[in-house]
Amino acid sequence: MTTPAAQDRARRLESALVLSALIRCDTGLRIGAAESTIAIGGLDHPVIRDPVSGEPYIPGSSLKGKMRSLLERRYELSQTWAIARGRVHVHVCEEEHEYAECPVCPLFGIAAPQRARWFCLARLRVPDVFLEDASRRELAEKSTDLPYTEVKTEAAIDRLTSAAVSRTMERVPAGARFGPAQFILFQYAGDDLRRNLQVLLEGMELLEADYLGSSGSRGSGRISFRDIGLERVSFPAGGGLAERTPLGERYPTLRDLTAAFDSLGL
Ligand SMILES: [Zn+2]
Prior knowledge:
single chain; globular; binds zinc ion
């Protein structure tokens, strides 16, 4: 049997499936910035902003990282890989046979264990997501507390004296929309695209069920995916320009897309 590690040739990149969607903030969204680097208005907890435009954005790494951690829990994957000087453990497949069955590592990628050759095809790309044009205009007209954001004040209650200490944090207000976000799935020869897309959609479902950013258990970070479209970009064998084909229709919500999953013809 030929294993991927035994192949000398690189596996051919056949196509990319591009899922695009708007991300709607159903509650205020807080993706924090390092406080030392971006201090706006002396807030305790500023949100991350694009250094050029000054507008809040959603880092692709936040979307990808959160989906990955939720999927690892959903599939009960081993958490044996220590990062951040041993303070954090995550899942990383360390054996080729394990990787071949893993729903997460082939999509999200892993660091190279022991310089093995089978690891290297991270199939999912998630670019950063910026404010949708219409949403940017709406927020600009609303004259929010800070440009495009609100300042939320919460109270920490002393359990003995009932004294309240307030803390402030910055959020992108509920109703704001980012996008279109793109989730790009590369397909190499032999890949099961149907399975990979299903895992991506599962990750998106988990993200809608949970939250993005911080303070999720206190109400922030509920998001939903809207106006979702799929396009297949095929790279012809032997060279030539890509061929683009829409897949399915546009789906108002993630639920509409998952209900139509079997009709996509994958
Ligand atoms: Zn894995």
